[in-house]
Every structure is written in C-alpha cells, then in structure tokens.
Amino acid sequence: MTLEVIRSRMAVAAESAGRSASAVTLIAVSKVQPLDRVTAVLEQGQRVFGENKVQEAQGKWPNFRAQFGAVDLHLIGPLQTNKARAAMDLFDAIHTVDRPKLVTTLARLAQDLGRCPHLFVQVNTGAEPQKAGVLPQDTDSLIQAVRDSDLPLSGLMCIPPADADPAPHFAMLRDIAARNGLTGLSMGMSSDFETAIAYGATHIRVGSAIFGERTPA
Ligand SMILES: *Cc1c(COP(=O)(O)O)cnc(C)c1O
Fold first, then answer.
1. Residues 119, 151: contact at Cβ < 8 Å?
2. Which range marks the domain in which residue 116 is found?
C-alpha cells in the first residue's frame, strides 16, 4: 500500500470520529525492512519513523539523517537499561517505558545529557505474561514515578493481544490516560489503526501496510 492510501484512510477514520487528521501522527515502522524500501518512503516525504531495536536503528538512521535531514525517530521496542544512553542519543521519543528501574536510569541520563526524548509508558493491557509493559493496575504509580523524576511524559502506549478485539484495549488505554491527565495515545498498527483513531490514538505505528510484509531475517 502506498503512503498516500494510508494517509487517506487515516483522514477518513479521523473524520468519522469527529477528529482532525492532523491530530494523528503516522509513525512508519521501518524495522527489518530493506534499505531501498525505507529510502523510497523517505523520498515520498515521510519524516517520522519507528524502530524496535536500538542497535538496528543505530546502523541505518545516522546515514539517512545525513542524507535526508531531520527525521523524527521513535523507539517502539523494549529498552534495556544498558542501551538507554544510546537510545537517548538517537531517538526523539521512547514509547516503551515500563518499569521503575528504567525510569531511574532515564532520569539520571537526562540530568547528564541536559535533555530527554518524549516518553510514553507502555501498558500491558492484556496482562500477557510474555509481553512487555506495566500491568494496568500498576500504571498510575509508574506514571507518578515518571512525573516525580521531572521526565517529559507524552502519554501511553499499548500493543493489544494478537488475536483479540483491539477495541477494549484501546478504550482501556484511553481511560487510564484520561484519569492521569495525559493526552498522548500510541496505539494502532497496520491491521487496526482506524479503530485506534476512533478511540483517540494520537500516534499510530504502521509497518507492513506501508512497506510490505517483513521477511524474517
Ligand atoms: C512492528 C511493530 C509495529 C508495526 O506493525 P505492523 O503490523 O507491521 O504495522 C507497531 N508497533 C510495534 C510495537 C511493533 O513492534
């Protein structure tokens, strides 16, 4: 699918939800994609991208930024504390803050560096044991910890269980954000971004619908 088709589907979804299309940021998820496909999307003017691994992103984005200028880069995969500094150097936003230890590390690094990417707290809305994210019942206190550390908190992120109806998960994320006074909602992927927009997504993370299927390495 082309970027243009995704953008028009976003606009239709926003309009039927009574929202402005400009209130939704499209993050093009370029993980594992061949570089020529990423180049093609950059050439179409897309400047917001998502990656799920720090090392993989380090291998391609400095070059792309040198070639294409400023690119807004979002980390959407789990972050280990030993990669936190590298992540803060490379990314403009980190969507996967999910435990107090990571908050402590980010706070210390933010002091050192004098800046910090925009942060999202990842919520494991389906309470899946294998999945990253803070459990719903622990989310308010993690949000408080981020705020107590004076870190820039933009909102919440979730990845609904693979074969469930995503709508209740999007609704849960929206409700947790609302009761905590947060406006950013990173939710919705290739298969469900229109539903996510209906539930208030401000950032959708779309990979395969833009770039084509990822061939496993
Ligand atoms: C890979 C990935 C996406 C994009 O998934 P698609 O189904 O290809 O759109 C979105 N969010 C996260 C966290 C991902 O890891």
1. yes
2. 3-211
Q: How many domains does the chain have?
A: 1
109 C-alpha to center of ligand 1: Å?
A: 27
Does 216 reside within a domain? no
Which phi and psi angles does 154 have, rounded to 5°? Answer: -90, -30
Q: Which atom number of ligand 1 is nearest to the Cα of residue 157?
A: 13
Confidence tier at 215 by pLDDT (50, 70, 90): confident
User: Tens of pLDDT along 91-125?
Assistant: 999 999 999 999 999 999 999 999 999 999 999 99
Best mutation site among 76, 96, 203, 204 for ligand 1, i.e. most ligand atoms within 8 A of its Cβ? Answer: 76
Place of tokens 């909102």: 155
CA–CA distance, 193 with 60 (Å, rounded to integer): 26
At residue 80's C-alpha, the angle toward residues 78 and 83, to 5°, is: 115
pLDDT digits (tens, 9 = 90+) for 54-63: 999 999 999 9
Residue 64 in any domain: the answer is yes
Q: What is the CATH number of the domain that holds 203?
A: 3.20.20.10
**What is the pLDDT at residue 91?**
98
Q: Is residue 203 part of a domain?
A: yes
Query: Structure pTM?
Result: 0.97
- Return the pLDDT at 43: 97
The verdict on residue 31 lying in a domain is yes
